[in-house]
């Protein structure tokens, strides 16, 4: 079940709205895709880690290595498949974040669990875990074969209207939000979740939803191709 893991009042004021509303959300808040009942899906978890740096609240993102077989080069939250030895999605999210970015889990406080979200392209049922980075630790691309870049991206930069637009994949019906910030091009599942969280957290600013760009052209402009 999704919902708060802590009292909202024990978290920073800027994070409280997300904690408070987390129990009221369902998957339809984030995606129109539902897991097919007659086909196999794999369980996964991602860590949406909010910290506070010199430029205000930020979120930890990574860019996957170009050599990976799936989602190569895409910007994502730290995360991965649930292992049999994991004690649940929270443990999965923390373990994967440590393995991919080197973040010290002892400084991370999980604060809420969001609804499980289905990602059709990879057939994963992904549970996002919201967390507060109480004691930030150094982060890096632990294994360059898996992770190309790790970055703390300011919420204010994500909310900046100049960094937001939509992308369309002709012939597929796909239309979704995207961000170009700090040298990262964010689209797909990650951009969709971030877009909703900006709204729910009260950070969203008016932006031009009529700015719709061709996905492949946008990928090429930002230095990589869709795989």
UniProtKB/TrEMBL annotation:
Annotated keywords: Hydrolase, Magnesium, Manganese, Membrane, Metal-binding, Transmembrane, Transmembrane helix
Residue ranges annotated for the Nudix hydrolase domain, each copy included: 40-181
Metal-binding recorded as keyword: yes
Stretches that traverse the bilayer: 184-203
Cofactor(s) this protein cannot do without: Mn(2+); Mg(2+)
Gene Ontology MF terms in the entry: coenzyme A diphosphatase activity; metal ion binding
Statement: the UniProt record of this protein carries the keyword Membrane: yes
Identification of the protein by name: CoA pyrophosphatase
């Amino acid at each position: 079940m999704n919902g708060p893991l802590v009292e909202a009042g024990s978290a920073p004021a800027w994070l409280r709205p997300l904690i408070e509303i987390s129990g009221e959300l369902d998957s339809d808040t984030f995606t129109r895709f539902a897991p097919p009942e007659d086909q196999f899906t794999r369980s996964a978890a991602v860590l949406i880690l909010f910290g506070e740096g010199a430029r205000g609240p930020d979120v930890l993102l990574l860019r996957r290595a170009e050599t990976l077989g799936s989602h190569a080069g895409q910007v994502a939250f730290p995360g991965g498949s649930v292992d049999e030895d994991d004690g649940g999605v929270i443990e999965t999210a923390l373990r994967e974040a440590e393995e991919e970015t080197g973040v010290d889990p002892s400084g991370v406080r999980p604060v809420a669990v969001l609804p499980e979200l289905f990602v059709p392209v990879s057939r994963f049922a992904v549970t996002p875990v919201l967390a507060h980075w109480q004691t930030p630790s150094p982060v890096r691309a632990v294994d360059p074969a898996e992770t190309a870049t790790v970055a703390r991206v300011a919420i204010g930069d994500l909310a900046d209207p100049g960094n937001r637009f939509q992308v369309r994949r002709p012939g597929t019906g796909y239309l979704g939000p995207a961000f170009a910030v700090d040298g990262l091009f964010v689209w797909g599942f990650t951009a969709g979740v971030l877009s909703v969280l900006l709204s729910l957290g009260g950070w969203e600013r008016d932006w031009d939803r009529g700015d719709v760009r061709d996905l492949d052209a946008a990928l090429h402009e930002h230095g990589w191709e869709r795989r």
